[in-house]
Amino acid sequence: MRKAVVPAAGLGTRFLPATKATPKEMLPVVDKPAIQYVVEEAADAGLDDVLMITGRNKRAVEDHFDRAHELEEVLAAKGDADRLETVRGLARLARMHHVRQGAPLGLGHAVRCARDHVGDEPFAVLLGDDLIDPRDTLLTEMLKVHARTGGSVVALTEVDPSETHLYGCAAVEPAEDGVLRVTGLVEKPAPGEAPSNYAVIGRYVLDPAVFDVLERTAPGRGGEIQLTDAIQELAGRDGRQGGPVHAVLFRGRRYDTGDRASYLRTVVQLACARPDLGPGFRTWLRGFVDTLPGAELPAARAGAPVEAAATH
Length: 312
Hints:
The chain is an alpha/beta fold. The protein is 33% helix and 21% strand. β2 (28-29) and β3 form a beta hairpin. α3 packs antiparallel against α4, α8 packs across α9 and α10 crosses α11 (278-290). It is globular, with a radius of gyration of 20 Å.
């Protein structure tokens, strides 16, 4: 498996006015745009062919992973070897391809737009709102499961039962080697109606049979074509036509950039985890928190380091 699909056609309305002219995917998370973390994750897992599903006003995403000869010449003339290598390295991460979604018809429709590029190969889908800490090799583990089981593989995480209405939730049963078998999926179930508190997060390894299912999947919740509905159909297929569907339960570090508050937490968490920035930033952060009204750290935590942690 060499191909990854990264849907990046959203309008980013939650971040207006910052996203009026700048794609949400290009908002910086410390010193890299969010989308770069996703492409690096795919490349680290051995997926060196990346298709971006884009829309209008996403040219900056395409440019970011292309060569920038004028910038490279300026950096070379200054003798700035480190930054020059950083810039050149972006174009070497993966073979980048781009296709426009055309209309905002949902995640399932975005994935369907990848059909001509993917063909009859299994492929991965990585959503840009979910950043997985590079120290946690979730995608690599999912690819290993797919190699053993075939079919499709989704990533799940446990959430508080009060939050299940925010996610697609899975009904599961134990399978071999600690892997779960998905028996059903419900997209954003009503409170109290979730099959479990196992929520689907933004990493998928899909059999190409999903494309035929998506072609006939009617718009679901929100009037959009839901990828969850297509995977639900694959889950009912036992070793044939793209099934079954297995799941990896992820308990590692995950960062959410889907809204302003979680985006800010992500920036702070990743900055604290950086060996070059973390020590000084954590020292400043502790002092800053101490100046906030009513925000004194509990005595037991006063000397504890501020560390990166998962948001869910």
